[in-house]
Every structure is written in C-alpha cells, then in structure tokens.
User: Fold these one by one.
Assistant:
Number 1:
Amino acid sequence: MTKAVLSALIRPLVEPRLPEWVEPHWFMSKEQALEMAPEAEIGWFDLNEKEPMVEIAKAASNLKWLNSIYAGLDFMPLQLLKERGVVVTNGVGINAITIAEYVVMLMLAHAKGYRDVVRAQARKEWLLDSPGKRELAGERVLLLGLGAIGQLIKTRLEAFDMKVVPVRRSGADGALKPGEWRERLSDFDWVVLAVPSTEETRGMIGAMELARMRPNGVLVNIARGDVVEQDALVEALKEKKIEAALLDVTDPEPLHEDHPLWELENAQVTMHLSGRAQTKMFQRSADRFIENLGRWHAGEPVEPRLDLDLGY
C-alpha cells in the first residue's frame, strides 16, 4: 500500500475513485497534516495559507510525489524537494479558461468604459453617450507568456480581430524573441502579462518598460504582482504615461487600505479573483489527480510536472 496524505476538502471528489493500492489519510488542519506528513509517499498539502504548506512539505521526509492545485509554487521549498527527489505536479491549466475569459472581460470593460456605466446606474443617471469609445478590433497586443493561459488568451483575443504577438524563445510564427520585445513596446496598444514568477520575470516591467509604452497603452497583469515594479507603475499611472493598468494581481496582496492603486482612476484592481470566477476548479483537479495515480502506478510520467530548477 502507498500512503497518501490528502486534504479533506477534496475527499468527496477523490475517495470513491481511489485505487486499492492507495492508503488515504485525510487532514482537516495544519496540525493534522504535520502529524501525518512524515509517512506520506504521495502528498496533496494545499491550504489557503502558504506558510503552513511549506512546513508540511518540509516535514514530509518520505515524500515521492507532491501534487497541488496551485499553478505557482515558487513559495515552496523547491530546492529541498529537488534534493529529496520529489516529483511535483501543479495546477497549470486548471484555471486557464476562466483566467483567459477574465482578461477579455477586463479589456472590454476598459475599452467601453463599463465601470462608469455601472456607476451611472447606481446613481440612476441615464447616460446619453458611451464613456468608452475604444474598439478591440484591429488593436495590437503584446502577449508575454504563452503557456496554458497565454494560449487561450491569444485565441480569444484573435476572435475579436486583434493582432496578438507573443514572445517565445524561438521567435517562430511571428513571435518576438525574449531579447526583442522591450524595443518594440511602442508598437502595441495592450501589453498582457501571463508569465510565471521566476528570477527572470520578477520586475520585468519597470520604469523603462512603462516609459516605452504608448500613451494609450494598457497594461494587463494576470500573472503575479511581482513581475511589475509596483512603485514605477503607480508613478506612470499618476503621470498618465500610459492609459491604464488592469490588475488582477498586485504586490503585495492584499493591498493595504491606503495603497494608491485603490484611488487611481486609471487602475482597476480585481483582487486576484480571475482563477476563482468558476466552479469547476476542484473537479478538474480531482480528475487530473486520479488520472495521474494511474500513470504513477504504471511507472509512467505524471503531468503537468513542475521543473524544480525553473520554478514552473
């Protein structure tokens, strides 16, 4: 029997489908997980808070495979897991559909001034003209990040007749190479960030990059807050160097009450809700986990597998 330590939150979706060779142990709290962790060969240690997940992973000295619903696991002790030879699967793609839809929503809401329409309704004011005049069709989008989420963003924006130019290492199919996009920022109306948080991407959008964007340029960030230098962004928005920033993620999270992003009219903050705007996340994760159990038992690769060196 293979001992698996799993969150009780996923139990109703997983337990009836577990193969006979798995011996499940369900935890309801950090304390229970820490007690069970040393014997776990398979672990699904997800909690709402990240620090306890790190503690549990460190305590799981016999762990062979760590599974998570989180796509970004840069907060976990990846080097330790690598030294122990642990295979890690993450939640890449689980929320890709809803996040891609969220990007379209944010862009349309900004282009049509929908926030002002909602405010007018609250005031019972009948507007005689649209507060937003922008059309997505024909505008150019620089897409940084072409993973599961980025690919879905690309196809959805192209359906609106937008010209989407991604960044990829090969530069194939009209894409820009990693060393080329900064010089081309002024070519684009929108810059969409869908990259993981790594040493390479943290702070990739700073004062220099913002200064190179068009005055009507809009920054859309559904990646991680730390890929943008927050102080530089606030300054650019205050001075109206760019038209707007549509931010599902910020640095820090949550924003403190007096953070300037709350008050800036050309900033929209959606509180990291894009991945939560759906009801199928746990079902998709459970289905993937059960499929991976079959692969694991057969000695086949589980997926999607996290690269412990790259962090994604």
Number 2:
Amino acid sequence: MKYRIQALVLISFLIFITNFSAQIKATEGKKWTVIKNLSDEFNGKKLDKRKWIADPEGHPDFGWIGRPPALFKESSITLNKGKLEIEVGKLDKTFTSYKYSTPSVYNYYGGIIRALKSISYGHYFEAKFKMNKTEMGGGFWLMSKNICDFKHEIDITESVGSISPLAEEWGKKWDKIMHSNTIHRKTNCNEAIRSQAVVYPEVKNSDKYYTYGCWWKSPTELLFYLDGKHVYTVNPPVNFNQELFLHFSIEKYDWNPIPEDGGKVASASKDDRTTYIDYIRTYKLEDKN
C-alpha cells in the first residue's frame, strides 16, 4: 500500500507539472507544452541540479563570479515554501579574486542559477518573481556560450530593488520597470550592439509578484509580456538563431552603486534582502491533436 501511494503521488505530480498553462495564447491549432528540464516550480527542499547550477564556477560553459563588489555565492540560493530564494548581503570578510586581468574585490554577495540545457528560438519563457528591496537587482535572461562574434544575450527583464543615492540619472526609475534587451557582442567581446525596450508598471518590482514572459518567435522577432499582456516586440540587431542558456541572477549594477556604508544590502532585513521566484517555465508549441 505504501508504494502504491508513493506511485500515485509521483504520477499526480508528473501530470501536474506538465499541465501548467502559459499566460499567452498559442497560435491557431497549436498548444503550449511545458519543457520539464527547463521549467521548475521550486517545490523541493533543494535546487534540482539536474536542471540548474548555482555554483558560479560550476557550469561547463560559464564561469562569471559576479560584478564587484558583489560575489555570486551558491549558499545564497535556497528553496523555501515553494519559492526559489536568492539572498543578498554583506560578506563576513572581504574576498579578492585574481581570476580576471585585474584583482576583483568583493564585500557583498548575490547569486545566480544557470540552466544545464540550452535552447533556441521558437519557445516561450515565463518567470514569476518579486525583486528584493536593496540596491542590487538583476532578473531573468538567456546567454550563449562565451564565443566572440557569436555571443548573444536576451534579457527578458531586469530591474533593481532600490535606487541608490549614487545612481546614474537615467537609472532612477529602475525599481519600477520591465526592461528587455537583445545584445550581440561583436569581435571584441565587450563591444556590444543591442535592441531594447521598456515599460513602467504602476507598482515597484519589489512590492508584488510580476510574471515576465518572452516568446522568442523567430531569429528576428521576440515578443515580450508582462502578466500575460504583450507590452512590446524587439527585433534584434542580428539574427538570433543560436543555442542559449537560461539564467536568473541577482547582482550589482555599476550604474546603481552600493553606498559606502553598505546601504540596504548591509542593513535591510533578510526578507527585504531576498528575491522570491515562484516559478520558471519554458514552453514549446505543439499540435493540439
């Protein structure tokens, strides 16, 4: 009887995770079907390492450890009550990395998860989350392997939790925003050309859960959605036809510096220093019959 119950629970769970509906309608005669190895409801006790890598240097194709002074730490990633939590805060002691051409000094931490499997155009991506309330931010994005001339990035959405008093003028609305990019890096990996779009919702990103979506419809057309509503279309600067990897990161942006005293990253409560991700889902179009 015990094993029968366990089997029924497992079958019910498998049926449950494959029947989630995308917020957007499929094209005529089609339906959206969840891709299980690129979707997660975060209902377990630990991050599913068959899908995601939280160790910033543990992925076979990526090794970025975070933009100083905020280091990506695997321990900042936890699962709790059906949410993926990414905490930011102040390190116990300063850490200096010699991984890059110049020493990188870190006094704070955030976190990143990266998908193990890559994916290309023709799919719809969706994440529901609430941003932390600190000067750090980030969001939901895709990146190709680090190969010059062929390096592409899709930022489905990015924002910060709180505007620093040191922020660049153009970034002072980024605590209440959906901002999306398609970025192509040219021969010099740091020389980028991009197409981007933005919308400003009424409520701050840290005050409610928003659902952010992107239908990577073709190499030349990406449709973006906020809470199921189409908000803009982005046409990338070159054909986006590569395999990319899903990412979700909370990091430090140069244009929104952490104040010298650590600001809210150092002083806010744990709840306010945490970004809560309800789910990440990836869908493919299939025939209805």
